[in-house]
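Below is a filled-in request sheet from our internal design queue. Each sheet records the structural input a requester submitted and the sequence that came back. We keep these sheets so that new team members can see what a complete request looks like end to end.

REQUESTER: design group, bay 2
PRIORITY: normal
MODE: inverse folding
CHAIN LENGTH: 392
BACKBONE (tokenized):
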């Protein structure tokens, strides 16, 4: 083989290259030749491609921006042009093409045509998109964590400075001790709950939550939750209407965790409802389930926040302004605990200022469970969900 064979071999390469689509255009940009890969890739027989303007293979958006003309112009006047972009098939579908357009000049330097070589890189493009999305969500969650740490510092600092000034008051005015102790108790309770919530988040993420299942009437944890948030409700002059079905609503669940769930929902309603608001608590049953609704006429939730309210560290913008306390972990614990019980929780809001409604659904205890209760032998198993390791 010698150098004179090369043009024939190049022609064979152009015809037989199975990955690379090759197009040759005249100086006006009309297609004069293409290889088999090009026909396959664009979905046209070669006879239909010949004579077409190159621009007909571009997407309408790129054609409107006159990208095809720009590519040929640059290739004609300076250098090869990279042309990584979406291109159009005969059936209207698109693929991500990567390649080059080259201006073909004769000995005198006159442009006698163009060659375009490209390949389908849709897979690579999709992988890149996925990676980009993953990077973005890592960055987002990092930002959430940073915001969370800032909020946490405030949440811890506020009670600590209240405790510090309490100590000062007791030192200077010993008569104030009993008043100050009340404040100590409230602030310590707040700090304790904060630590418990944080521990719960850690336990859930490491699969170390312990649930003490027992058959009981869900009205008990509901009543306990109402009692525990009543100082908050009274402090904000809210009215609470309770519509609780007047029959036992038996569930097989951990009553302490259910109380925590309903306290969280009620406390949120109290926090995110302007003073003197109305909160409604409903409990009923149907379709083998118990339904508990917590409804308020408060600040509501914008549609863009709704899908994220149960995510860890999510705090609505208007919520942060309305209630300074809160770490954005309460609702994520609500969802985790309810799902660990085989139930579900949903949120509804018609938007800002239109109130919110949270609905918890839990399976009713089955016949065997109910029988065990009616013989007064409640099954109280200490069931560990996830790894059976000691709680940390
Ligand atoms: P936190 O209350 O500590 O911010 P949560 O996880 O309990 O965290 O709630 C997450 C977010 O959901 C709140 O910041 C708030 O934007 C929104 N939210 C929860 N409950 C209500 C409610 N009843 N009314 C309006 N917004 C609510």
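RETURNED SEQUENCE:
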């Amino acid at each position: 083989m010698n150098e004179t064979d090369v043009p024939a071999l190049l022609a064979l390469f152009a015809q037989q290259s199975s990955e690379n689509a090759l197009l040759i255009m005249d100086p006006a940009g009309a297609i004069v030749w293409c290889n088999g890969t090009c026909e396959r890739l664009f979905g046209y027989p070669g006879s239909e491609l010949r004579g077409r303007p190159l621009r007909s293979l571009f997407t309408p958006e790129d054609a409107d921006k006159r990208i095809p003309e720009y590519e040929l112009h640059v290739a004609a006047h300076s250098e090869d042009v990279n042309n990584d972009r979406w291109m159009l098939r005969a059936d209207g579908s698109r693929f991500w093409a990567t390649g080059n357009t080259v201006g073909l000049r004769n000995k005198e330097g006159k442009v006698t045509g163009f060659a375009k070589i490209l390949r389908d890189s849709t897979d690579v493009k999709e992988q890149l998109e996925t990676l980009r999305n993953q990077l973005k969500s890592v960055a987002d969650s990092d930002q959430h964590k940073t915001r969370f740490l800032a909020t946490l510092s405030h949440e811890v600092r506020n009670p600590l400075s209240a405790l510090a000034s309490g100590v000062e008051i007791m030192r200077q005015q010993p008569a104030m001790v009993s008043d100050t102790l009340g404040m100590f108790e409230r602030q310590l309770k707040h700090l304790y709950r904060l630590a418990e919530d944080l521990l719960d988040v850690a336990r859930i993420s490491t699969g170390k939550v312990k649930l003490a299942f027992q058959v009981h009437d869900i009205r008990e944890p509901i009543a306990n939750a109402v009692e525990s948030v009543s100082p908050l409700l009274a402090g904000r002059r809210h009215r609470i209407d309770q519509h609780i079905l007047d029959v036992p609503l038996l569930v097989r669940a951990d009553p302490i965790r259910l109380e925590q769930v309903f306290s969280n929902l009620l406390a949120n309603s109290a926090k995110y409802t302007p003073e003197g608001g109305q909160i409604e608590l409903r409990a009923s049953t149907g379709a083998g389930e118990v339904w508990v609704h917590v409804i308020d006429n408060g600040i509501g939730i914008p549609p863009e926040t709704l899908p994220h309210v149960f995510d860890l560290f999510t705090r609505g913008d208007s919520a942060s302004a309305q209630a300074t306390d809160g770490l954005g972990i309460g609702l994520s614990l609500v969802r985790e605990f309810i799902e660990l019980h085989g139930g579900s929780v949903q949120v509804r809001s018609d938007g800002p200022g239109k109130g919110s409604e949270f609905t918890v659904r839990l399976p009713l205890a089955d016949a065997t469970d109910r029988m065990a209760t009616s013989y007064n032998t409640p099954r109280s198993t200490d069931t560990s969900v996830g790894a059976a390791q000691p709680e940390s």
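SHEET NOTES:
- Residues 268-269, 272, 296, 298-301, 309, 314-316, 319, 326-332, 356 surround adenosine-5'-diphosphate (CB under 6 Å).
- Residues 374-392 have pLDDT under 50 and may be disordered.
FILED BY: M.R.
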